[in-house]
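lol ok so funny story. i was supposed to be doing the assay writeup but got distracted and ended up predicting the structure for this chain instead. priorities right. anyway since i did it might as well share w the group, maybe its usefull for someone
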Amino acid sequence: MIVETHRRHCYYRASPDGDRILFGARAALHAIDPVKSGKRLQRFIGDVFPDLQQVRLSHSWSGFIAFSRDTLTHIGEQNGIHFALACNGSGVTMAPYAGHKAALKLLGSREGRTAFDDHEFRPYPLYAGRP
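and the output, tada:
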């Protein structure tokens, strides 16, 4: 998987059969209509791969993303519950790593230790939105 972080967090790779490019990006930080999302993704693809500006997308979807205030992934345990949270828009690349490390922690392995351990989740000041 290749990830570029030009404030869009585009990611892409060849399909397993080598016939297609699987491309994704953060089209918006809020709920967005799939048609608008698709148009933005089309523009992003053209920015990354200029030769593909006229190629049509086959699918577009969206979802909510977990951002932490410190923009760090958090891996740890609280009250007996192990977690790997807040990939901050980079879940495609970070979640498998964080999940693996959380599993190693659960098994009691020292190899589960990471730089993302034991960081306190700080709330956003005056935040009253829906988490």
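The mean pLDDT is 83. Residues 47 and 53 are 8 Å apart (CA to CA).
back to the writeup now i swear
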